[in-house]
Amino acid sequence: MSSEALAGGRRRAPFKPSQSLIVLGVTLALFVVLSAALPGFVTLGNLFTLARNISILGILALGMAVVVIGRGIDLSQIATLACSSAIAVTLINGGWPPAAAIAFGLVLAILIGVMNGYFVSVIEIPPLFTTLASGLLVLGLTRALVVPHYQVFLQPGHEFLLMLGGTVLGGVPVPLIAFAICALLLHLFLSRTVIGRFIYAHGDNAQAARMSGIATRPLTMIEYALSATIGYVGGIIMVGSTSLMHLQVVESTMIFDVILVVVLGGISLVGGRGNVLSVIAGTLLIGVLLNAMTIMNLDIQTQDIIKGAVLLLAIVLDSYIHPRDEETAKQGD
């Protein structure tokens, strides 16, 4: 046999970049174009603003990624973080120690997540309807019992919370550091722990995971609890950045921005695929895009049109790359 034939037999398959790497490349190209086309885009002040804004969006997307990898979706995430944070701020204003109030809000967020997971896994209500209803329920109860005027302001004297929205090391935003820590911890959890591997198996094929002995019902509750917990971290950082929590954020398009980041970055809606790098890639692209639209002073309707078109394109791309079949179309459809 000739040496060419031997070399051909050992020839490796051509490199096929992942969706997250493609998105990172598109982000780099877009950044270069916007730097040349938009005055003020590459200024230090705008870059720090960009880093601050994408950090909170990225933290929320990390939480959503856990649920989507497990082949679910959490439309209540923004309501959970907003209401839990608003209640925590109300308790702080009422004289509670900040640590105790923040811990109470965290427990509340976890309970909402566990409740979502219970209805999805035990009652077997589709996650789309479960989380939509629970978000409305949580928002309604919070407005009726705690924050009737949509917003609650953090009273002066709580510098620790304000530090969460500040800067360190000569201007590095604290939210960016929080995003990096959350991303690292979630990466280690998904890639190095048994539960993390179970989440991928659950999303890839829920029935096979159940038959192999994985307790999928408690696992689903863990997935939604993690989404709520990580989202709550983002909510507390939002309070530190603005000194208030405005419940109208629940009625904004933020939840669609979070889903857009997740899907665009390469975390498939069919479950079992994607990782933290996918979230980082999607966060960078959407953050750059939103920042550019703000600098161009585009109206809200135009921004919604662009974001809607990008989200639809991302869903179509996900359906093309990861087609559904009888084995994958079990939970979350």
Average pLDDT rating: 85
Mind describing the biggest β-sheet? Answer: 2 strands, antiparallel
Low-pLDDT stretches: 1-9, 326-333
Number of helices: 14
**Amino- and carboxy-terminal Cα gap:** 53 Å
How much helicity do the residues have?
Answer: over 70%
Q: Please count the beta strands (DSSP E, at least 2 residues each).
A: 4
How does the overall form come out from the CA principal axes? globular
Give the radius of gyration. Answer: 21 Å
What structural class do you assign from the helix and strand content? mainly alpha
Going across the biggest sheet, name each strand in turn. 1-4
Proportion of residues in β-strands? under 5%
Order of helices and strands: HHHHHHEHEEHHHHEHHH
Transmembrane segments: 21-42, 54-71, 78-96, 102-121, 128-148, 160-190, 224-247, 253-270, 277-298
Protein name: ABC transporter permease
Subcellular location: Cell membrane
InterPro entries: ABC_transp_permease
Architecture overview:
With 333 residues, the chain is mostly helical. The chain has a domain at 45-250. It has 14 helices and four strands. It has helices at 3-9, 19-37, 44-69, 77-93, 98-121, 127-145, 159-163, 174-192, 194-204, 206-211, 216-242, 254-265, 276-295, 300-321; strands spanning 151-153, 167-168, 172-173, 244-246. The strands form two sheets. A two-stranded antiparallel ribbon has the order 1-4. The protein has a two-stranded antiparallel ribbon with strand order 2-3. Strand 2 and strand 3 (172-173) form a beta hairpin. Helix 3 (44-69) crosses helix 13 (276-295). The longest helix has 27 residues, at 216-242. The protein is globular, with a radius of gyration of 21 Å. The N and C termini lie far apart (53 Å). Residues 1-9 and 326-333 have low confidence and may be disordered.
